Amino acid sequence: MQDMPLKKRNEDKTKRRRLEINNRKTVETIIREHGFSDYRWIKSENIVVAHWVRFKCIFGCTSYGRKGTCPPQVPAVEECRAFFNDYSEAVILRFAHRVDRPEDRVDWSRGISEKLIALERQVFLNGFHKAFMLFMDECRMCSKCTGSREECVRKEVARPGPESLAVDVFSTVRSVGYPIEVLTDYGCEMNRYAFLMVE
Asked: Where are the domains of the chain?
């Protein structure tokens, strides 16, 4: 009789693990159907959230105060940390690309974001009600941002990038073996990363 509770707990744990594996397979199938092949899973507890990232947004980023999905239009760092704690896992999607001119990055980024939002929707429609995408770049869904969440004309598809939510992308992606370096000029290949939060 003393072993019954332990046995029951082990059975429940096995069932949860099977469900987790099946859920991963479902999400991975959807990812591949959307044309993405370079991705890795990460436990959300391993997503590094840091105050220094927010400071880099405030002091150094030209989008600060000009985008509805960038600081100061986003939650405080501690709220961002709490957001990631609401999930057990995430998928990191990698995009390696080189542009000839700096301005080419905008159209490339917008095209990827359109595909990412379609991916998020499909994952949601497959029963993952907490699916939420963090774009690989600042939101570029509109050619000109209103600079305000309240005045955003595409609220249903506007999403922040991971840095907007104080994610240390460098430490986080390196922890799963992905490459990332500071680029010294626009001729270098970019490694950009989107995060699909999923439960």
From this structure: 37-198
